[in-house]
Write a structure and sequence with these properties.
single chain, alpha/beta, Rossmann fold, five-stranded parallel beta sheet, 5 strands, 59% helix, globular
Length: 191
């Protein structure tokens, strides 16, 4: 099974593209935020543990997130692999993910990074706010901060994956369909 990381700054379209890619290539879309909420809603032992941590305003520890992903991998059948959206967020998480995958005879196959011009990101986020009503997409100061946080947190992961030879920049400019076709051309040989 393949393991693909998809990255991009806020507004790059990674969420939209992840759903489409997962469907086209029969991949399991792993959004850790969605997974956390599902575990809590299902009342699983892991969900109760995470709910307790989050109710105190604390971040869920990396090992708990890795355990949740491992559980999903172990229970997934009839999939060509996994598409990670929003994870890992640090180099330490990347190393933990590699270790857990290695224990299952798997590896991270590629890291696709959507590259989008700064002005286009801001334009997309403001446009998204008009459609979705998300308050974090309306304020340009908040948008600028989110983009900066992404750059600060993600650059080390990109550098790490570049040294591993799995970093793949992808032009994230153009229509949803054009970007989808570019991403698909990188995935086709892997899946």
């Amino acid at each position: 099974m393949v393991n693909i990381l998809i990255f991009g700054p806020p507004g790059s379209g990674k969420g939209t593209q992840s759903v489409r890619l997962a469907e086209k290539f029969n991949l399991t879309h792993l959004s850790t935020g969605d997974m956390l909420r599902a575990e809590i809603a299902a009342g699983t032992e892991l969900g109760r543990k995470m709910s307790s941590i989050m109710s105190k305003g604390e971040l869920v520890p990396d090992e708990v997130v890795i355990e949740m992903i491992a559980s999903k991998i172990d229970s997934t059948k009839d999939s060509n692999g996994f598409l990670y959206d929003g994870f890992p967020r640090t180099v330490a998480q990347t190393v933990s993910l590699e270790k857990m995958l290695g224990e299952r005879g798997m590896k991270i196959d590629t890291m696709l990074v959507l590259e989008v011009d700064h002005d286009e990101l801001v334009k997309r986020l403001i446009g998204r706010a008009e459609v979705s009503g998300r308050p974090d997409d309306k304020d340009t100061a908040v948008i600028e901060n989110r983009i900066e946080v992404y750059r600060e947190k993600t650059e080390p992961i990109i550098d790490y994956c570049r040294t591993k030879g799995i970093y793949q920049p992808v032009n994230g400019m153009g229509t949803i369909e054009e970007i989808f076709e570019r991403l698909s051309s990188y995935l086709s040989p892997l899946v």
